[in-house]
Amino acid sequence: MGLRTPAEYVESLRDGRQVMFRGAWVEDVTEHPAIRRAIDHAAIDYRLAEEPATRDLFTVGIGGEQVSRFYKVPAGPEDLLARLRAIEAATTEGRTVVTLVHEIGTDALFALLRVALRCDEQRGTAYLPRVEGLLRRARREDWALCVAQTDSKGDRAKGPLGQADPDQYLHIVARRPDGIVVRGAKLHTSVSVNANAMIVLPTRALREGEEDYALSFWLPVATAGLKLVASPYLTGRRSAVEHPLSAEHKMIESFTWFDDVFVPWEQVFLAGEVEFAGPLALAFVDFHRFTAVSYKLPLVDLLVGAAGLAAQLNGIDGAAHVRDKLARLAMYAATVRRLIEASALLGHREEPDVFVPDTLTVNTAKYHFAHHYHEALRDVQDIAGGLLVTAPGWDDVQSADVGPALRKYLRGARGSAEDRLRTLYLVTDLAVSDLSGYHEVLAVHAEGSLEAEKLAAARHFDLSGKIALARRLAGLDA
């Protein structure tokens, strides 16, 4: 098949999956109003792959067949940069909300290719053919994929064996001739309720004795015992005028419960090889942090653009302190963009022919974005003004009783009162709403914490070489 239409993608989700939303099981996710908004949002990936203006960016020829570009294993910097542009374009179409139904799953597949090969070579396993088989099938059928990685963890100061409840980390509870049975829960599973298949990865490095927790596999979302509790955050009806970004766009996360789920051996990629749990988790974030910064680009660009537009309509774009804030926002956006592009250009090739973003640069890019994001919001809020949270509603502006007065007194330096209010609504949705809170938490926690990014960057920085340079120039080694 190669490519699916948006309608075919939607139809593929009518499979009896177990999804709970606000205490009730959802009979058909495509008919549920809150979940359907997330499904239609994710379908952007499929729509852009068939539209003439974007088809070349979102598709690529492999084996004589056009397939989603996201399923192209990167072979060089040009593939990573094309992937970046596609993620950026889809997220822009999604009004700063990433689609993620192709991106995160292929991040995991690229990591699995690298680690499965090493495991097979060192342990004599046969995981790589299984990974390659999943890649071919998902590419051929144009699957939407999700990834479950973060365990519930319980007492975070302790590893799996130190927990009072052994189920706080997903683990094997039975090994059978035909497969394994797993129990536990994963948190923060993005796009799970509207994906076709789920890839499961370990969340951390493990040690001897924790073999039952060294797990990776895939399974259809509609698998017996796999139960998804969908987050209600950012759901509910909202005005498209007052919420121009979030009214029609939503990504849903889930609490993912593996209630003694059976996984056939042919779908297993790791089952006890503890020394590969940490490398697999890290290999995934090499690609996923590249994806993360790629989908942040429309967000930081919009912060600059919305602040600049608000300054013009408020008549303060000539003020020195506003110019200073706009310059700071512009440098922030430019630095994030250039760093993620550099991570592609500085990448390296690993067997089996996978081109990997430069770890130091991609972690620096993610850290820089996250570390300065809240400062950028402060500048945008300062420029836009207090009407962000005190402005009247759009219905008030349209009313016969008070509308004329509102249109008179809320005019700005340029344009109409309606222009100014629409701009303020945009900035509110972007910088002070529940969508803003969503982006703020993602900045700190999604794709790894600030500390994780800092530690990853430090591990790959040549500190000993710099110390040697300092010793030489200080004359200590003369």
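Above is the first protein from milestone M3; the second protein from the same milestone is given next.
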Amino acid sequence: MSTATRVFVARLSGLPVFDPNGDQVGRVRDAVVALRIGRDAPRVLGLAVEIQSRRRIFVPIGRVTSIDPEAVVLSTGTVSLRRFDKRPGETLVLSEMLDRRVTVLETGEQATVVDIAMEQTRTDWLLTRVAVRRDGRRRRAELTQLEWDEVGGFSLPEDGQGAANLLAVFEKLRPADLAGVLHGLSGKRRGEIAAALDDERLADVLEELPEQEQIELLAGLEDERAADVLEAMAPDDAADLLGELDPAEAQRLLGLMEPDEAGPVRQLLKYSDDTAGGLMTSQPVILGPATTVAEALARVRNPDLSPALAAQVYVVRPPYETPTGRYLGTAHFQRLLREPPSSLISSVVDDIDPLAPDVPLAQVTRHLASYNLVAVPVVDGEQRLLGAVTVDDVLDHLLPRDWRDTGRVRSG
């Protein structure tokens, strides 16, 4: 079975979607993309998948492991079953782009869109090629494939108005920089932008905003959308945000989240926010002792991991979800780079002392500084791994509460 890195979207329609266990989730009905200003290729956000009762749900493209001529396979069996509703700035490829009249830029000819290809890059899926039938050429054999930037008529107008156009301008900004832009807008305008952002992007931006603005934006979302965004956030960041809300409101939102997503957040909310338990993330890179060095290095290459989380892996006995089996040790990626790829990770672990979840912030800070660490494991009384505290989480709590309001560093 081969995995395609370029696929025409019309051929996806009707393909079964399977979870990692081989159970069918549903069938592909469309692809959801974000158009951009000028000739930049649109980014694929995810797939509209039809499940039972002809209800459509949204599956983020990041959860797609492989696409082949017979099926789409997901990396997880946990997907949101909430009904898919297209949001501002989103476009459906099959429903809204096929049969559209476009212009072949080189010749000025008019053409009709027959199909559009999406292609996997290092970090995203993009729409890259357009199959068109030019006016006066009706036979299928005379279809033409063009690069995305060779066709006009799709992109957002450069003088357009509204949130979609603004988001297209700022799409390439890092979350911290986009948060800086939002911070300078009125509350009403921030709400409009938040409504147009997809869940993953909004979650990333929320994590970079001052707490009060996080609360305001979350309160401005419909309940189900707020739960979706909380699910997309890292559990520790979601717990920090919910910890600022009225307890009854926090519990209500937790109840709207998928149980598998809400569970880790509930665990983190048990700890005071100035302890190792309150600071930690419950989703570090966790591996079993029989994992090879090559497999461990492949895991830390995940671009979604922060540098601090990618710096080391945590070796435990099963189960591998927190709280895990017995904690065995930590392996730093620099050590892994010096070992043969076939070596077992259990042979290269360091005996970094873990912390208990009730250890106060000051002691966590001293521990990281004393041993020149970027992260430290947190275990319970039975030596089960609960999570890891990273240096960036410590800095976030040591800095003044309003540090995000001033002195923002803009990156190119």
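Note on the second protein: The longest strand covers residues 24-34.
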